[in-house]
Design goal:
By secondary structure, the chain is an alpha/beta fold. 31% of the residues lie in helices and 25% in strands. The chain folds into two domains: 287 residues, Zn peptidases (Aminopeptidase), CATH 3.40.630; 114 residues, Alpha-Beta Plaits. The structure holds nickel (II) ion (NI). Nickel (II) ion binds next to loops.
Length: 406
């Protein structure tokens, strides 16, 4: 991850072909329209209608209603060949937008605060471009407009609905606009790019009573405090220090008064890791620790553990394809950030478990225009000049992957 930002921000689009550069006004228009009508996961009705209406106007073949609101586009090239999929997510977040821009969210309490409006606009851009340039590639491109990336996850039900089949997808690529990287840079790496996401909810079931008479109670707060501290030993003492992992308790609620011992304490937490071999490991250790501490105090517990998304693991070959294309497109020397990783999660991981592929970050932050708030912030916005660069990278990946003789 780049920790220092450059002194000035401009994106050099000279390596973006004219026919894509000229799409800039449309890309911005589509993105702003989507930004104004954000919808939560599996409720992307207006979004899907807008995407469909554009595809229909351009004479592009598509299917709707996949995993509720998902759309799959199929564009065949000039002759038979391999199949490359491009994935974009469409959903927004339950956040009240604080930006004072003409295109601000018109839906109260819902906001495109992660840039998925940009992903959808870029996907529309590549659909439009490829439809006009079918003679430039062999094989087939599938463009997957996915619902509910922010949870509970639209990738898995889309795979179950068969989007990677008929024709069978050979490889998949996708991007995330990324305000942790300067405008116009690309973060890509082979292997783990983003972490697995697991969640837990735990209730300690003690016995309440008078704050001055503790020996008649089982104090859920004392037990919860021990558990919070003990959970940190999983990463510190059970995980190989060469691996990376996080256990965070993000919420802890108990009690009502100075002089009352709380009978229950509730905690919520999240676990992140890159190494797929940890699947199941944290669930087991967390339960062992909670059970052991509760037993030693005579308490019970309820534990709900959710393995939400596996880690995002890029295939070395497809990551190299994206890296080589990015080096052709982005400005040097800022250019390509080779070892970009985050403990954030993404359900692109489900696609990458099925077929080789690569997910990458396209830097979209521009502090000079006050466009550098973090993702999921109520003032999040990104520099739209980067949109054609996303389309260009996808176009070159299509040409390079599908025209390569095997
Ligand atoms: Ni996102």
């Amino acid at each position: 991850m780049v920790s220092t930002f450059p002194n000035s921000y401009s994106v050099d689009l000279s390596r973006v072909r004219l026919s894509i550069r000229s799409l800039q006004p449309q890309l911005v228009e589509w993105r702003r329209r989507l930004h104004q009508q954000p919808e939560l996961g599996f409720q992307e009705k207006l979004t899907a209608e807008f995407v469909s209406s554009q595809l229909q106007a351009w004479g592009i073949e598509y299917q709707t209603g996949i995993a509720k609101t998902g759309i799959v586009v199929t564009i065949a090239g000039s002759k038979p060949g391999k199949v490359l999929a491009i994935r974009a997510d469409m959903d927004a977040l339950p956040i009240q937008e604080l930006n004072e821009v003409p295109y601000r969210s018109q839906h109260d309490g819902v906001m495109h605060a992660c840039g998925h409006d940009g992903h959808t606009a870029i996907a529309l851009g590549i659909a439009y471009y490829l439809q006009q340039h079918r003679e430039d590639f062999a094989g087939t491109v599938k463009i997957i407009f996915q619902p509910a990336e922010e949870g509970p996850g639209g990738a898995k039900p889309m795979i179950e609905a068969g989007v990677l089949k008929n024709p069978d997808v050979d490889a998949i690529i996708g991007l995330h606009l990324w305000n942790n990287l300067p405008l116009g840079t690309v973060g890509v790496r082979a292997g783990a790019l983003m972490a697995a996401v697991e969640l837990f909810n735990c209730t300690i079931l003690g016995k309440g009573g008078h704050g001055a008479i503790p020996h008649q109670t089982v104090d859920s707060i004392v037990i919860a405090a021990q558990i919070v501290n003990a959970l940190q030993t999983i990463v510190a003492r059970n995980v190989n220090p060469i691996d990376s992992a996080v256990v965070t308790v993000g919420a802890l609620h108990a009690g009502t008064a100075h002089n009352v011992i709380a009978d229950t304490a509730n905690m919520k937490g999240t676990v992140r890791y890159f190494n797929p071999e940890f699947a199941g490991f944290f669930k087991q250790r967390i339960e062992q620790i909670i059970a052991g501490i509760c037993q030693s105090h005579g308490a019970n517990y309820d534990l709900e553990y959710i393995s939400l998304y596996p880690p995002v693991i890029n295939d070395a070959g497809i990551a190299e394809l994206v890296r080589s294309v990015a080096e052709e497109v982005v400005e040097t020397p800022v250019g390509v950030v080779p070892e970009c990783q985050t403990m954030g999660g993404e359900d692109m991981s489900f696609f990458l478990r099925e077929v080789p592929g690569c997910y990458f970050f396209l830097g979209s932050a521009n502090p000079e225009k006050n466009l550098a708030y973090p993702h999921h912030h109520p003032r999040f916005d990104f520099d739209e000049t980067v949109l054609p660069m996303g389309v260009e990278i996808f176009a070159r990946c299509v040409e390079k992957f599908l025209n390569k003789s095997t």
